[in-house]
Design goal:
The chain is mostly beta strands and about 120 residues long. It has 2 domains: about 40 residues, N-terminal domain of TfIIb, CATH 2.20.25.10; about 55 residues, SH3 Domains (SH3 type barrels, Roll), CATH 2.30.30. The chain is built from 1 helix and 11 strands, in the order βββαββββββββ. It is elongated, with a radius of gyration of 17 Å. About 10% of the residues have low confidence. InterPro entries: YjdM (IPR004624), YjdM_C (IPR013988), YjdM_N (IPR013987). It holds the Pfam family YjdM. This is Alkylphosphonate utilization protein. It comes from Streptomyces luteolifulvus.
Amino acid sequence: MIENLPPCPKCSCEYTYEMNALVVCPECGHEWVPAESSAEGEGTAGERVVKDAVGNVLRDGDSVVVVKALKVKGSPSGIKAGTKVRSIRLVDGVDGHDIDCKIEGFGAMQLKSSVVKKA
């Protein structure tokens, strides 16, 4: 258990509390991993950190769920919210598309990490 919890990085509230592996701010509801700031520092030096729509760190091979409906060029129906995507691969894509994957019924494509949630 961490004795001196850091203040909230969003609203600077000093009344944060620990919940499992997360630190939570009671004022704004922001949740984060206390060692996250050091992980981000390491990420810039070596491996970059990719997070999903709710802030979970993504890794190669993870399964994710699409959180909002996506239009697909050339397809009459897009990708529906709730579609599960297995075995993602993190890449340096174009225009923020940092996930390379295969979606059943659509084939290989790239997605933005901001439209998926870790499954």
